[in-house]
Amino acid sequence: MAGPSDDSKIKLIAQNRKARHDYTVEDTVEAGLVLTGTEVKSCRAGKVSLTDAYAIVQEGEAWLLQCHINPYSHGNTQNHDPLRPRKLLLHRSEIERLGAKVSQEGRTLVPLKLYFKHGIAKAEIAIAKGKKTYDKRESMAKRDAERSMQRELGRRR
Q1: Terminus-to-terminus CA distance in the chain, angstroms?
Q2: DSSP assignment string, the chain
Q3: How far is Cα 119 from Cα 9, in angstroms, rounded to an integer?
Q4: pTM of the entire structure?
Q5: In CATH, what is the architecture of 9-131?
């Protein structure tokens, strides 16, 4: 029986657009996110920033660090710390695999986006390797060449 697509049940909270510019993404993993009540309300309002965020594997657990979630505007004394470490929910085998990949030289865990999937907070985490300046210029030149090629094809039609 055909139902609504999975994409319609995903609400994007925040996206790290600069990550694909600064890093070469090798692999991505979807992880659950442990949040408090005021953090969830703030996320639903879209008050999240992933610009400096990264993830680590420490003592068999995965953590999201430096992810800024603004304090909830109608919160009280129970409001959360905006930069507190947040636990990522992954299977043990996934955590071990991520830990092994990150231990290789030059690799890191970068959050690409945060979203609600069926009402549950999720994070898309990427195993990434930092780009050098010349790599960034090369990828920008390649993207510009593809755009101009598409533009020319459009004109000919």
Answers
A1: 40
A2: -----GGGGEEEEEE-TTHHHHEEEEEEEEEEE---HHHHHHHHTT-EE-TT-EEEEETTEEEEES-EEPPPTT--TTPPPTT--EEEE--HHHHHHHHHHHHSTTEEEEEEEEEEETTEEEEEEEEEEEPPHHHHHHHHHHHHHHHHHHHHHHHH-
A3: 8
A4: 0.75
A5: Beta Barrel (2.40)
Name residue 101's amino acid.
Answer: K
CA–CA gap between residue 57 and residue 141 (Å, rounded): 35
pLDDT in tens, 75-108: 777 777 778 898 999 999 999 998 888 888 878 8
CA pseudo-torsion sign 119, 30, 34, 74: negative
